[in-house]
Amino acid sequence: MLHPVYYIIMLVITFYSYVEFTSNDSNIKARIKIPYILIVLVLIFMAGIRVAQGADFWPYYRLYMGINKYVRWKDAFDAGIEPFYVIISKVLGYFRMPFFTLLTTFAIISVSLKTSTYFKYSPYPMLSLLFFFMPYYFTGDSGHIRQTASVALCIFSYQFIERRQLFKFLLCIFIGYYFHKTAIIFIPAYWIANMYISTRGCIILLIISIILGPFKIYLLFGSLFSSMSSDILSEAVGGYYSYQGMEGGNFSLNDIVKIIFLAIILFNDNYIINTTNDKNYMPMRNLVIFFYFLHYTLKGNIIFSLRLPAAYNDFSIILIAMIIKYSPKNMSRIIYFYIVIFIYLMSWRFWPNSVALGFDKMSNIFNSDTNYFIPYEFVDE
C-alpha cells in the first residue's frame, strides 16, 4: 500500500476540498491559499528528496551520471536526449550536486507551474490538487520527470491561450519541447481551445475517433511519432509498464472509467455553456475532449494514445472542478462525492504499483546512503 504519510496528505487535501465545496464564502480561495501553498511545497520537497521511488528513478540517475561523464557542453543539443535535461544535469554536475538536486529542480518546475495554474483557473483548487495527487503526482512528477516538466509548461501556457498571445504561447511550447518532444502535440491547442464546439459537436468528434481507431492512422506518421517517443522506447522509461500494464488494446476497467468521465463532462455541458460566466469553461472542455479524440484515434498503440496527448488530459483536473461548480446543486453534490470516492478507490487500485515503485516506503536522502549519488567522473572539456 501507499505509505501512511501519503494518505495523511490525501486526507488533509480532502478536508480542505470539502471546506471549499461546502463554503458559501465568495472569498474561500483567499482563505485556503496558504494551506494550498504549504501542501504544494510539501509535494515538491517529497518528490525532490525521494530515493528509489518512481518508475524512472534509477534510469534517470544513470543518465545524470552518464551525461556528466560522457556529454560535452558543445554536444548538449545533440546528445540523443532532450537538451534541457542535459543542460540542467551538467550545471548541477559542475557544482558536484547530488542527484536529488536534479529531482528537486524538476519537481519545482513541474509541480509549481501546474498547481499555480490549477489555483488560478479552478473554482475548487483543493479538489483539483486532490485529483492531481492521485495518481498524476506519483506517475508523473515522481516518475517521468522530463515529460511532466514539458506538460507543466503546456499547462502554464494556457494563460497565453486565454489572452490570445500566440508568441508567448509558442515560446512556452518551444521551451517544453526541449524538455520533452511530445510538447509539439500541444501546438493545435491554441486554436482548438478557442473554437466553438457544441455538445453535439463533441459527441460527433468522439464517434469519429472511435471509427478511426481500428485503422491505426498513426502508422502514417511513424517517423514523427518515433522521434517524439524515442525515450519511451529506451531504458529510461522501462518502468512505465509497471503501472500502465492495466491498459491495453482490449476493453478494460479503465475504458469504463473514461466513459463515466465523458458522461460527466457531456451530461451537463449544454446547461453549463448556457449558464456560466466562466469564459474558460469551454476552452478547457475543448482541450479535454481533444484528448479523448486523440486517445481513441490512437487507441491501437498504448504509448501513443496515452502519453502523446498527455498535456490535453491534464486539463481534466481543472475541468472536473468547473463541472462540479457550475452544475445544478443536486448534480454537483453527486459528482463531487463520486470524484472523491473515485480518487480513494484509485489509491487502492494503485497499491500493487505503489509497492513496485517504492511508494510503500519513505525512502529518501535522510534515511538512505546517497554518497554515490554525486557525479565523480566528468568528460574532458
Task: Explain what the structure shows.
By secondary structure, this protein is an all-alpha fold. It has one domain. 66% of the residues lie in helices and 0% in strands. The chain has 21 helices and no strands. It has helices at 4-22, 28-49, 57-70, 83-94, 99-121, 125-141, 145-156, 158-162, 166-177, 189-192, 199-212, 222-228, 241-244, 253-267, 269-275, 281-297, 302-306, 310-313, 316-326, 329-349, 351-356. The longest helix has 23 residues, at 99-121. The radius of gyration is 21 Å and the shape is globular. The protein starts with a helix and ends in a 25-residue tail after the last helix. The relative contact order is 0.15. The model is unreliable at 229-248 (pLDDT under 50).
Name the features.
single chain; 381 residues; mainly alpha; 21 helices; globular
